[in-house]
Each structure stands twice: as structure tokens, then as C-alpha cells.
Amino acid sequence: MTAEELRQRIAAGLACTHITLTGDGRHWYASIVSPEFEGLRAIARHQRVYATLGTSMQTDEVHALSMKTYTPAEWAVQGQQP
């Protein structure tokens, strides 16, 4: 899977204002900003992202996904622009 394919899958299932992905095709690192994360703890945020991937994690299409998840306000505190 390419970074663009992974980005499209996440964005199709989750309203995102920013997605950054790096990886080697199986092991991915992501920064994801979404207003849908508002009020959610980290585990619930990660579950929302995993839900967008469907069976991709189970079939090893995406072997590993390490992520940092932010609301737009949290992202702004980091000094980042959406």
C-alpha cells in the first residue's frame, strides 16, 4: 500500500484537516488531525483511525501503524498549521 492509498482510506472514513504519513509500505507513522477526536481519549482516537482501515490491518496489508492524533486546537498548540 502506498502512502497516498493509506491517506485516502483514512480520509474517506474520518474528517481530517491534516494527515502526515511516512513509512516503508508496511510500517507506517502518522500524524492525524481531526475535529472528530474532540473529547476522545487516545485509545478511542486510535480505534476511530483503525476503523477506517477495515480489514487492512488484519490481512497484513498494513502491518503496523504508529500514530499521533490531535484535535485542530491541539495541533495549533504544537505550532502546526492544518
TrEMBL record:
InterPro entries linked? BolA, BolA-like_sf, BolA/IbaG_stress_morph_reg
> What GO biological process term is on the record, naming one?
DNA-templated transcription
Give the SUPFAM superfamilies listed for this entry. Answer: BolA-like
Q: Name one GO cellular component term.
A: cytosol
Which Pfam families does its entry note? BolA
Q: Which family does it belong to?
A: Belongs to the BolA/IbaG family.
Official protein name in the record: BolA family protein
| Biological source species | Verminephrobacter eiseniae (strain EF01-2)
